[in-house]
Every structure is written in structure tokens, then in C-alpha cells.
């Protein structure tokens, strides 16, 4: 019997009703960049737990990708959540952390009390010259941000920050760190989140400011940038760098006070995580499609065995389902709809899917999948994190169920 002709995996295309010429061009540009620029770097640096070089970040900035959602009047691309997630999926397909670094732009750290400063920072953000880190979580406050204990005490025109933060990705390389701190304790009858304020700690990239030290957290995956536990001991922040907007409990009313804008940000982050998870799972499917044709056992490619063919089919179907759902929810957000439950649902479904698919991909690779010689082990390690960051799967289930059922 003639040996079947090898067929390269075919990446998915945008389908109606989401396809436009602009989106198709953006997708192709990001896909080519991920394949030709990011993937070789990931193959080299990820096994070393290495950091993405600044030259890569600068190349992404030149594409305008740090300003996808920033209005054109500030130098951004003026596009929506859909395009932001579309590009991020393509980059994450090559290396998860490159899809994530885009979130450190997009106007992060620009909501200052001074309108003139805000406009200037938006322009810098759009150019990739204002890339930040977020320090929300603490050793005893993760999903429950209302439990934050880091303190901010007013001294004249400055605030003095003291406490410990954990899971601050890219903290050393960033231009600033957005720190959530407590300025006062809640009054009786107030939500536990009352008194929490975000502060902008401006710094030189590659350093920590006076009063702050950072310890690298040794992760099993999600390489490309370092993640830190930060100690703040008298870090001084000018009043002008106190940021607007409040952080609230996951179960807070999304229409109350400043929490509405924060809730929208959380929803965007969840859809963005879903798109990144789809990118990682896509990589696993595409690599498996090639491997099943390449690897031979019992005198034929293992892709000729029905059990393996059907496993690959199930993987591909799950990825396509999650991909279609994140695109739908991104569209809802771009239409101005809250889509809170939908954002939680797609984050839950896409990330859990990525874990299943990458786990199955390792199985299809057999012993070769359990080596660092193949990329599939990287996909598996990175996918596992997506069910945890930006709100664990358990938090997403809480959000969804709380919108469906009353609490006693």
C-alpha cells in the first residue's frame, strides 16, 4: 500500500459573521509573526526558563499591538476586544507569555487623577513604551481581593505603601507596577472591598524602586517573563499617581459605583484568557496532526489507527467550539453588553478544554511527549495555568451560579 501523502495542519480561518478584510489581515500578520519570529525564540528560551528579549517586545510594539484597544486619537489602533483576542490567540499559539504581554499595554496604568498625564500615558502605552505589571494578589489574598492587607498611608502629597504582593508578572522589566492597597478599613455596612485603591508605582525597567524588593517565583511553566513576590517597605507614591476606579468583590453588583468599569476589565481579561488558552490548545492539535503522520509503528503511520484518529478529531472539535465561543463573547463586549456570565463561562470552558487537549496531545505523542524534545510538554505546562490565573475555574463557577441562583 502506498504511503499516504503528508498533509500539514491547516490553521483555522475567520468565518462569517466575524470575518472582515481588516481582521483577516490582522490574523495573517500575527500568525506569520508568531510562526517566524516567536516560535524559534520560544523553542530556544523556554527550556532555559528564559525571558523574552526586549527586541521581541519592541518588534511587537512596532506592529502597534500594545495599543490595539487604545483610541486612534492617542496613537492606538482603535479596535475592539475581538481584535485584541484575535491577535493574542495567534501569539499564544507560539508562546503563551507573548499573548499575555499585550495585556500589559492597552492603556493599563493610565487612569491617573490628572487628565493631561492620562493622555500622555495613553500615547506611550500605544507605542509599547508604557508596559506594566499588576500587583493585586498577596500570600493570603488571591481570588478574594477584598482580603488585601497592603497598606497605603497618606503623608502630605504622598502615599506610603507597606506590605507583600505575590504573582506580579514582569514586575522587574516593567515601566510601572499597579499596586492594590488599603487606604482605610471598611465601615460597618460597607462591602469588604471598601477602602481599596490602586496606586501607580513608576520605575525604571530592569529595576525596583526604593523600598521594594522582588523574589523570583520558580514556576513550572509560563516562561518568557519572570514572576515575583514583592516586599514593599515604605514605597512612596505621589498623590497624582493614585489611580481612579475601585476594586470590588467578585460577587459585587457590577452596576454600583466605580465597580462597573472594573467589572468590564475583568470580563475582557477572562475572554482574553480564553483566547490564549485556545491558542495553546490549537498548537497541540496542529503538532499532533503532524506527529501522527510522522511517527510509524507496526509498519504504518500511527495516524492510520482509528483510536488515535478519533482522539485527534475530538481535540479539534473542542478547540473549534471554544474558539467560536470566545469570538461570540468578544463581540458582545464590543457591542457594549455586560456579558459577565458569558465571560466567566468562556473562560471556564476554554481553559478546562486546553488542559484536556494538551494532556491528550502528550498521550498521542507517547514517550516522546514526556520529553523536552517536543513542544507538546510546553503546551501542557502552560495550559495548566490558564485554569488558575485571571480567576480560577472555581471562581468562574461561582460567578455563573450566582447569576443563576439566589443565595440563602
Which of globular, elongated, flat, extended, rod-shaped describes the shape? globular
- What's the architecture of the largest domain, going by CATH? Up-down Bundle
Classified in CATH, the superfamily of the largest domain is: Butyryl-CoA Dehydrogenase, subunit A, domain 3
What fold name stands as the CATH topology of the largest domain?
Butyryl-CoA Dehydrogenase, subunit A, domain 3
Sequence of secondary-structure elements = HHHHHEEEEEEEHEEHHHH
In the predicted model, the low-confidence regions spanning at least 5 consecutive residues are 246-259
In DSSP terms, counting alpha (H) and pi (I) runs of 4 or more, how many helices?
10
What proportion strand? Answer: 5-15%
Main sheet properties:
4 strands, antiparallel
The CATH C-level name of the largest domain is Mainly Alpha
Q: State the total count of DSSP E strands.
A: 9
Sheet with the most strands: spatial strand order: 2-3-7-6
Rg calculated over all Cα atoms: 22 Å
Mean pLDDT: 92
